[in-house]
């Protein structure tokens, strides 16, 4: 399956870009403004890493980090909770994130962001903004979480799928024991300019592991960061990068719809975490910064994330 669309990979609708400011306003309303911090995924830990391509994707993409088997690409990795509150206990933030910046030779970089659920909460920037406004309205009205979730599911059908996945999440034993989904579709671009829709997933070498109720009781608020730091002192942590190959009819413009589970996949390489790193002030994990050989799809939410990230960065940089 190939795609001939040659749309500029960094273009986005001006109308959607104008929604970035009010969207960040609503994101700030979820947990308040915490000066100098990210508006979402505020609490996190950064690691040094290398990525070793398998070469299995070399024929499909000119991306430097996907091509030469046996090579090593420098990478920066950030694990995080989903909340905008940097002081929230790890157990209280259900979704977890994994963002990777591949730093290829020649000052080129490619970013891949992922989360522990495979779908997003809304199909378009407009519906996402409406959803956030409703969440904040319910919050101001003092409506409990269970009733609020029910009301949101009734008024926003796209929200149901993501909520179903969130309900299945259990606190992870480690950041190193989560399966992370990049959620959006992307296009791999080969040397002839052919485009193929794909999705990306990170699979933990250790397997998926969650905590029992008894294990949760004695955990410190920052248990995930402490656990990962201790684990890396004992040895590297590894994830396999799986590329899921899209077929005709698989939606590329709707992040609320998962692809069928039977899609062919290849293992494009291994991410190896080697130690802790500083969370640099300028570290901006924009998922539309794909680099050569990979392009954003026609997913409007994916394109919208770039101006939202930029506005979030502008605000927090002024607070530092």
Keywords:
globular, 8 helices, alpha+beta, 320 residues, ten-stranded antiparallel sheet, Catalase HpII,  Chain A, domain 1
CATH top level class name: Mainly Beta
- Strand portion: 15-25%
> Mean of residue pLDDT?
92
Radius of gyration: 19 Å
Estimated helix fraction: 25-40%
Number of helices: 8
Shape: globular
CATH topology: Catalase HpII,  Chain A, domain 1
Main sheet attributes: strand count, strand direction, barrel closure: 10 strands, antiparallel
Counting DSSP E segments of at least 2 residues, the number of strands comes to 10
Distance between the termini: 47 Å
List unreliable stretches of 5+ residues.
4-11
Order of helices and strands: HHEEEEHHHEEEHHEEEH
Main structural class: alpha+beta
Q: What is the CATH homology-level superfamily?
A: Catalase core domain
Overview of this protein structure:
With 320 residues, this protein is an alpha+beta fold. It has a single domain (14-319), classed as Beta Barrel (Catalase HpII,  Chain A, domain 1), CATH 2.40.180. The chain has eight helices and ten strands. It has helices at residues 14-17, 20-31, 125-140, 145-155, 159-168, 213-216, 223-234, 300-319, and strands at 44-53, 73-81, 96-104, 108-115, 180-181, 186-189, 195-204, 237-245, 265-277, 294-296. Strands 1, 2, 3, 4, 5, 6, 7, 8, 9 and 10 form a ten-stranded antiparallel β-sheet that branches. Strand 3 (96-104) and strand 4 form a beta hairpin. Helix 2 packs parallel to helix 3 (125-140) and helix 2 packs across helix 8 (300-319). The termini are far apart. Residues 4-11 have low confidence and may be disordered.
């Amino acid at each position: 399956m190939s795609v001939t669309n040659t749309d500029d990979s960094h273009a986005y609708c001006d109308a959607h870009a104008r929604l970035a400011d009010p969207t960040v306003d609503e994101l700030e309303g979820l947990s308040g403004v915490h000066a100098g911090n990210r508006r979402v995924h505020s609490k996190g830990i950064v690691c040094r890493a290398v990525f070793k391509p398998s070469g299995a994707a070399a024929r499909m993409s000119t991306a430097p980090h996907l091509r030469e088997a046996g090579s090593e690409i420098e990478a920066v990795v950030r694990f995080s909770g989903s909340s905008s509150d940097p002081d929230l206990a790890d157990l209280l933030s259900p979704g977890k994130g994994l963002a990777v910046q591949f730093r290829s030779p020649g000052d080129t970089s490619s970013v891949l962001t992922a989360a522990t659920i495979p779908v997003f909460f809304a199909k378009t920037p407009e519906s996402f903004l409406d959803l956030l406004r409703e969440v904040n309205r319910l919050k101001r009205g003092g409506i409990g979480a269970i009733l609020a979730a029910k009301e949101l599911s009734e008024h926003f059908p796209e929200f149901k799928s993501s909520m179903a996945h969130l309900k299945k999440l259990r606190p992870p034993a480690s950041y190193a024991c989560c399966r992370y989904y990049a959620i959006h579709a992307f296009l791999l671009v080969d040397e002839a300019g052919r485009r193929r829709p794909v999705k990306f997933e990170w699979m933990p070498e250790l397997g998926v592991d969650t905590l029992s109720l008894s294990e949760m009781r004695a955990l410190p608020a920052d248990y995930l960061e402490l656990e990962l730091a201790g684990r890396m002192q004992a040895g590297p942590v590894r994830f396999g990068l799986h590329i899921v190959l899209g077929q005709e009819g698989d939606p590329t413009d709707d992040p609320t719809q998962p692809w069928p589970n039977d899609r062919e996949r290849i293992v494009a390489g291994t991410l190896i975490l080697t130690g802790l790193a500083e969370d640099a002030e300028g570290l901006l994990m924009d998922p539309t910064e794909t680099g050569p050989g990979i392009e954003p799809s026609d997913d409007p939410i994916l394109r919208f994330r770039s101006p939202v990230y930029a506005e979030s960065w502008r605000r927090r940089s002024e607070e530092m």
